[in-house]
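Fold sample X.
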Amino acid sequence: MSSLSLAVRDSSTMLRRNLLHARRYPSMTLNLLLTPIMLLLLFVYIFGDTMSAGIGGGGADRSEYLKYLVPGLLLMTIGSTTIGTAVSVSMDMTEGIIARFRTMAIHRGSILIGHVIGSVLQAIASVILVGAVGVAIGFRSTDATALDWLAAFGLLALFALALTWIAVGMGMVSPSPEAASNNAMPLIFLPLISSTFVPIDAMPGWFQPIAEYQPFTPTIETVRGLLLGTDIGNNWWISITWCLALTALGYRWSQATFNRDPK
C-alpha cells in the first residue's frame, strides 16, 4: 500500500472514531451549541427593537436587527464548537490513547487529521442548525445570489478549519481537559468584542482597534456583506489572510507538539 493510500485509510478510521465519540457523548457539543442559539433568541426578542433603533437611527425593527445579528452568530457558533475539539484532543493526550497510537503501524498524521476533519464537519453542521433557527424566526437573505451563498459557505468552512487547528494546538499543550476548555475560551470571547452585536463605529474610540483588528470582525463583515448585499470593502481578503495564517500557525504548532518525544 502506498503512503498516500495508508494516510487516507488511517485518516478515515480516525475520522470515524471521532464522529462516533461525538455521537456517543453529545452533551458537550449541545452545551456549546446552545450558547449562540440562546444569544440569538435573547438579543432578537429581548433587545431587538432597542438595538435596531440604535444601529439604524430610525424606528425599532426587530427583523432588521435579526439580519444584522445572524452572520455574527454563525461565526460565534464555529468558535463555540471548536472548544469541544480542544477538550477532545486533550483527553486523548492525557488518557494515554495517543501513546498507544504511537506504537501502532498507522500514519502519524492521521490522528490529527481525523480530529480536524471531524471538528470541521461538526462546526459546519452546527452553523447549519443555527442558521436554520435564524430562518425559522424570520431571517431572510433576499439580496444574495447562489454565488454569494456559496462564497459565504466556503468562507465559513475555511474559518472553521483555521480555528480547529488552533483548538487542536491548545488541546495538545493543555495538561487536562479542564485546562483545554479554559485555554480555548478566547474562541467564544473574541466574537463578543467584534462587530457581532453592534457596528465598530458604535463602540468607544479607544476600544475600536481591539474590535477591528482581530480575525472575527472582517470575517463577520464579509459574510454579512455576502448575505445581505452590503459593502464588503477590504474585509474579504483580510479575512482570508487571517484564515490562512491561523491555519498555518495551528498546523505547525500541533505538528511540532505531536512529534515531540513524550516525557
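Fold sample Y, listed below.
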Amino acid sequence: MNRLKAILPIIVIAQFCCTSLWFASNAVMSDLVINFALAETAIGHLTSAVQFGFILGTLVFALLAIADRFSPSKVFLISALLGAAFNAGILWEANTLATMLSLRFLTGFFLAGIYPVGMKIAADYFEKGLGKSLGFLVGALVLGTAFPHLLKGITNVFPWESVIITTSSLAVIGGLMMVILVPDGPYRKQSQGVNVSAFFGIFKNQNLRAAAFGYFGHMWELYAFWTFTPLMLKTYNDLHPETNFNIPILSFLIIGIGGLACVLSGYLSEAFGTKKIALISLVLSCACCLISPFLFAIASQKLFIAFMLFWGMTVVADSPLFSTLVAQNAAAEIKGTALTIVNSIGFAITIISIQLISSLKTITDSNSIYICLAIGPVLGLLALSKKTK
C-alpha cells in the first residue's frame, strides 16, 4: 500500500519533467526570432508544428496499440529520450524556420508517447479515485507546459539556450524515473495485437462519445489560450503604457495555476460528480472568452491579471475530468488506445483554433478575436448536455 501511494507522485514528477518539452520554443520565441531571423508569425507555426507532430504520433501509437501491447513505462522512456533529443536540436546554429518546424514536429510526435501514455499508466494503477489521480497528472502537464516561461523569466542573465538544455535534461530524468520506479500496474490488461476495429469502434460507445466531444470543445480553447497568453499580456502592456508586466513570469503563473485547478477539480469530481464539474468549468471558461475584449479596455492591471489567472484555471480544470470519463467508459484492453485517439483528435482541433487566431491577428488589431475561442466550449456543452446511458 505504501508503494502504491508513492507511485502517483513519481508519475506526476515524471510527467512534469517530460512535458516541459511542449512550450520550450515558445518561451524563447523572441530570442529565436532575433537569432534565426524569423517572422513574428513564427510562434503560431512552431506551436502548430508540435501539435501536428503530436497528432500524427497519437494516431500511430493508437493504430498500433503501442501503449496496450508493450510496457507503458518503457514506451514512456523511449519517447522521453527521443523527444529530448529533438528538442535539443533547436540549439543547432544553422537552423532555419524549416528545420525548426521539423524539430518541433518530431518533439510533438514523441510527446504522444508521454502525455497519453502517462494517463494510461495512472489508469493501470488507480481504478478507484481515477479522477483525482488524473487531476494531479494533468496538473503536472500544465506545470510542465508553463515551466519554460518560468525558466525564461528567471534566467535572463543566462543565454536562451539554457531553457532548451534544461527542458531536454528534465525529459531524460523523467523518462528514467518512470522506467526505473513504475512497473506495469495491477489493472493493466495487455492487448493481444493490433485491433483496427477497436480503433474505429471507440465512438460507438455513447457515453465515451459524449465525453470525447466535450474534450474536443475544451481543446479548441485551451492551447490557443496558452499560445497567446504572452501576446495578450503584451497587448495590455501596449494599451496601458503605465503597465510594466514581467511577461514570462506572468505567463508561467497564468498557465501554471491551471495545474492547481486540475487537482482541485479532481477532488471536487469525487464529491459532486465528474460530469457536473466538467460542465461548470466549460461554462466559466466560455464566459471568459466572451468578456475578454472588455478586460483589455479596463485600466486596472490588478483586475486584468486576476481575470487572466481565473481564465487560466477554468480553461484546463475540466481536462482531467474528460480523460477520466473516456477511461471509465473504454474497455480495459483498449483503454490506452481510447485515450490516445481522443487526444489525437483533440490536438488536431487545437491547430485550427491557433491558426485562426494567428490569421485574425494579421488582419485586425481588435481584441474581440478571442471571442472565437468560445465556439469550442459551446459545442462541448451541447455534447455533454445530451442524455447518455
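Sample Y note: The longest helix spans residues 206-239.
Also: Residues 1-193 form one domain.
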